[in-house]
Amino acid sequence: MMAHRPGWFARISAGVVALYLLLPISIIIPVSMTDQRFLSLPKQGLSLQHYVTVLFSPEWLGSIWQSFLIALAATGLAVVSGTLCAIGCWRLARRSTDLLRALMLLPIIIPSIVYAIGAYRYFAGLDLLDRFLGVALAHGVTGIPYVVITVSTALAAFDPRLEQAARGMGASLSQTLRWVILPRIMPGILSGGIFAFIHSWDELVIVLFIASRDVFTLPRRIWDGINENLDPAMAAVAVLLVVFTTGLLLLDLALRRRRAE
Amino acid sequence: MSAAGHALALRGLSKRYGSFTAVADVSLEVGQGEFLTLLGPSGSGKTTILMCIAGFVEPSEGAILLDGRDITALPPERRDFGMVFQGYALFPHMTVAENVAFPLRVRKMGAAEREAKVRAALDLVQLAAFAERRPSQLSGGQQQRVALARALVFEPALLLLDEPLSALDKKLRAELQDELKALHRRIGRTFVNVTHDQEEALSLSDRVAILNHGRLIQQGAPAELYEAPRTRFVADFLGKSNFLAGTVQEAFAGGFAIGAGATRVVTAAAAPPALGSRALLSLRPEKMALLAEGETAENTVQGVIAGWSYLGAGYALNVETPDFGTLRVTLPTWNAPIAPREGLAVRLGWRAAASVPVLDDLDQDRAA
Prior knowledge:
The complex is a heterodimer of chains A (261) and B (368).
Chain A: H1 8-26, H2 28-32, H3 49-56, H4 58-92, H5 95-104, H6 106-109, H7 112-126, H8 132-156, H9 160-168, H10 173-201, H11 205-210, H12 218-228, H13 233-260
Chain B: E1 8-17, E2 20-30, E3 35-39, H1 46-54, E4 61-66, E5 69-70, E6 81-84, H2 96-106, H3 111-124, H4 140-152, E7 158-162, H5 170-187, E8 191-195, H6 198-204, E9 207-212, E10 215-220, H7 222-227, H8 232-237, E11 242-252, E12 255-260, E13 263-268, E14 278-283, E15 289-290, E16 299-310, E17 314-321, E18 325-332, E19 345-350, E20 355-358, H9 362-367
Parallel strand pairs in B: 3-8, 3-9, 6-7, 7-8
Antiparallel strand pairs in B: 1-2, 1-4, 4-5, 9-10, 11-12, 11-14, 12-13, 14-20, 15-19, 16-17, 16-19, 17-18
Helix pairs in contact in B: 2-3, 2-4, 3-4
């Protein structure tokens, strides 16, 4: 069958939408290479001085490292609890589990500022404010929906007869989980993990509320930089962020392609 | 692998889902080393029974016994039954060898012993050369044989087969039928097979249990079921059959006669029904002959060919009769006494034993 080719209208609209999505991001690339000392487009020539600043500044590097560790811990939390929740709901498959699954999506439905205020109130009592653990917990919990969604999708495509076959051959629940179910849904778990990581990596609102001095993540430092001194180093950091995130998304794409095969 | 068949018994097995009864009071015995087939149309409860035996479905009532021991409450992973699933359910992320090794790995068998057993099982199904392939790289027939090897490698007490050949094309199906039968002979294990394919049931099984609407209608050796169906459903589902309805006119030793219109048909029966009652006879299309001028038979009926088709090995004729409607008759082509043509008047003849009295369970079905 011949594929239906898009007409000129569809092509132009697609191009406009792509530009609309890409332009605001791509503007930071020339800005990051400005030869000026403030946030602006380059005047006389291109310069990489702001990249050098970022890569040799203990503050920026400290924030990058902190963000990375927090994202890693949050991803671990989100992946383990999200996967277990999705598998549990899938196995029980009752109306109540559908409700539970919907409930797990709350963190992406509720505005994060509302969530941040709640977390602030709670964490104050638990002495978790401005702590690595506090931010990792908050990011981990708000990352769960991404994992629940991708793992539930992977499980929907899982042939339940494989589980029956495994049990029929004498496999216990944990053997079935380890040898049959987990390998089959691994692409979904990895996908969810990547999204949970990105979520924590660029999360700002919650951090603004529950962290102040000791925990100073990368998005927080960019935010402060914009408020205080319009340092072009921020643009350089932003470019690095975009490259890193794009890399993660490409990884996700590659994983999905492998699963499709 | 030696003859290590186990005996299975179902006692009054029932399964209800809400107000729907999937299986109603089924009792069955499967002897050591026997090949039993549960045969029925879709929705007859045959797969539910198999799932109860495997342990995936909990019966509402009744018991399942293995060698006299009640296993009804045992979870599937502790029953030690091999199972070939519909669509095979091979693990796509494992190689053929890993698939076959799975039940051994679950039992924590040592690597050396495991390898030897996997090789023996793959040899058994002639797939040793494919050990390192993935299931997706195999044909349907090969996948089916991997599923068999995987189900047999741990020497299960019982082998359960859920429509094992339904996904294959006709020619391959016939080939694998022969293989399955030979395999059963060779290893002497007890097999329980589920199918809706009556040919498969007849050719493979030592015994067939026919189910409809969750009830066991009749069980017995394939020939017994084919030659002496107890009900209209059995006669119709297992092979093809004509049905002659009439009133009992005469009873004699070893048989009775029914009348319909001007025609009288005699049949063999141990216990004839009451005179004047309605009776139904099943008559297989291949058990009738076209009679030549002056030739006689225990039963004869006049008719006209209303339609016919050529089927290679045989002709299928639709013969219009005054008292029994259209009768389906098959004749072997190689010695057919006539060249069929529409409108030709013929005389059909058959032996008394060929028309078998059956219970008319059609009304019962409509009520169910």
